[in-house]
Amino acid sequence: APTIAAMVLKGADTNRIKAQIGPCLQKHNLKIGREAPEIYDMFKQTVGHTEFLTDHPHEDGKILFDNAGMIIAQLQEAGVTAIEADETCTLDQAEHYYSYRYRQHDAAHENMRNVSLIWRED
């Protein structure tokens, strides 16, 4: 949302902003350890949402994080309604996309990168 706020300060109209969330680590693969309860508290304080954190159904002590869902909610809160999200998981499709988590297991993956863009259409 800080990016949207900065864009609005520069004259952008949230009704004209189109957001596209590209491939990213999807909820079923985005595990966070629950070793310390402060993770949950810190998340709630900084993001204001906890509905994007759910207990892992098969791994005790792990939480699944819906990153794309949280991004969509933040965009909507900032007034953006034209949002599309690609549901491709970068970890499941690591041969095609950079994945930090996959890179931990494959040194050849080190040289890949993902890119994000913002542009203005007149």
Properties at a glance:
122 residues; alpha+beta; three-stranded antiparallel sheet; two-stranded parallel ribbon
Element order, helices and strands? HEEHEEHEH
Between the first and last Cα atoms, what is the distance in angstroms?
23 Å
Summarize the main sheet.
3 strands, antiparallel
Radius of gyration: 16 Å
How many helical stretches? 4
As residue ranges, the low-confidence spans are none
Q: Could you give the count of β-strands? A: 5
**Helix fraction?**
25-40%
What does this entry look like structurally?
Helices cover 27% and strands 15% of the residues. It is built from 4 helices and 5 strands; from the N terminus they run αββαββαβα. A 3-stranded antiparallel beta sheet has the order 2-4-3, with no helix packed on it. Strands 1-5 form a two-stranded parallel sheet. β3 and β4 form a beta hairpin. The protein is globular, with a radius of gyration of 16 Å. The two termini are 23 Å apart. The model has no long low-confidence stretch (mean pLDDT 83).
Topology:
Elements: H1 2-9, E1 18-21, E2 31-33, H2 38-47, E3 53-55, E4 62-65, H3 67-77, E5 82-85, H4 100-103
Parallel strand pairs: 1-5
Antiparallel strand pairs: 2-4, 3-4
In short:
It contains 4 helices and 5 strands. With 122 residues, the chain is an alpha+beta fold.
